[in-house]
Structures
1.
Amino acid sequence: MRGVILKGIGGFYYVLSEGRVYACKARGIFRKLGMTPLAGDKVVFSLEEGQVRQDFDGTIDEIEERLNCFDRPPVANVETMVIVMAARDPLPSFGLLDRFIVSSERAGARTVVCVNKTDLAEPALLERFRRIYTPLYPLVFMNAERGEGEAALRDLLRGSQAALAGPSGVGKSTIANLLLGGSVSLTGAVSAKSLRGRNTTRHSELFVSGDLMIFDTPGFTSFEEPEMDPAELSSYFPEMAALKGRCRFDDCAHMDEPDCAVRQAVSEGRVDRSRYRSYRDMYTALRERRQY
Ligand SMILES: Nc1nc2c(ncn2[C@@H]2O[C@H](COP(=O)(O)OP(=O)(O)O)[C@@H](O)[C@H]2O)c(=O)[nH]1
Ligand SMILES: [Mg+2]
Ligand SMILES: [Zn+2]
């Protein structure tokens, strides 16, 4: 049988398959290979039949190849990364947003940008988000406290394993509750309380409600600076990647080289200045770290 791991606790993995949850153990081979099954893993498992005393339903035989996986929090297969910023409280940082976006792109996730707390926003700030990000990613404006924007986000997340990432206080838990709200989790563990509030989540869990699948991920409040070759960076800025091959030098870093198509595009307003600034800041940081 095939299914997806909702969570792992105390050596048991709770696998959702065709609307039912099975408590499974993992074959010893995974430990030998140094592989830990993670919430979000797609697995093949077999049911244990005819045991005298069954304290579990099945055994995980295979873990399907992962799209991506993360250590902190420990989850696999984040298909959609919703990056949440608040319009205020806390004030957004475009540089931070772009760093989150690069991490998402690098992980091969589909990126969605969500601006919450629109009720507290200066209209000019929302306009700035709209101008910069509308051409690049799906952009959702929300007031999670009032449920505004919920339908738009729901439409984007249908059928895709999604995580909410962003600084603390921006409303990730409020949004998760809104999307999953009122539904009884298949594991019986979801409650508004477990998603909200102070109690830090000790394990990662994938919550399923109808056709939504959302990781409870208090850990996605900061990404570590991705360790990568600085030359890779521009490939995670789609508007720069689109200009690939147009610079004078094939290995142009789009920093100070002559006849750089990216800098040309910035000066003509085809690539946003704030995005380019984020690129420069990240590039410089990556290059400096390489020198040690
Ligand atoms: N004004 C306003 N407050 C919100 C909104 N969404 C969430 N909040 C509040 O912002 C605070 C932080 O929300 P929370 O979901 O815990 O943020 P998290 O740290 O990202 O999980 C809470 O007091 C929420 O009630 C919103 O759309 N507007
Ligand atoms: Mg939270
Ligand atoms: Zn260039």
Note: Residues 103 and 224 are 9 Å apart (CA to CA).
2.
Amino acid sequence: MSRIKDLQKQVNKVLEKLEDGDRRLKAVSHLHGVALAAAMLAKVRGENAELATMAGLLHDLYAYKSGSYDDHAQLGADYARKLLDKLAVTSPEETDVICTAIRHHDSKAETNGPMDEILKDADVIDHSLSDPTKAVKPHEAARYARLRAELRLAD
Ligand SMILES: [Fe+2]
Ligand SMILES: [Fe+2]
């Protein structure tokens, strides 16, 4: 089984326990949407698409599990590290790359490393394009404008 399949299985195990069906569907849709967008951006930018996918799958898992977005980037990075340590499918360096990206993913106004930026941008793509008729969130507008130029997206 691929590492991504292993991780998807683990993520699904956590999500299956969510009692609220709507929230569970939203979680599945967002985590998989961000994972796909992250893989695509990694391919565009010459970065590691496998690690980008894994970061996308994990990035908000803690928030969905706990029901709280308070400090969810830091707490989510800690939770992702525990999960990855348990799964034992990544090297310590790979775990660091994934967890650092998760720790930074909510700091949309800052610029961090390449994988951090991929995860932030993938989050913005899912927020902005899962319903393309909705207005882009104001705090994500600058980042979305840069993505539009990079990916040649129409208005
Ligand atoms: Fe988040
Ligand atoms: Fe997210």
Note: The helical segments are 3-16, 21-45, 49-58, 61-66, 72-87, 92-104, 114-129, 141-151.
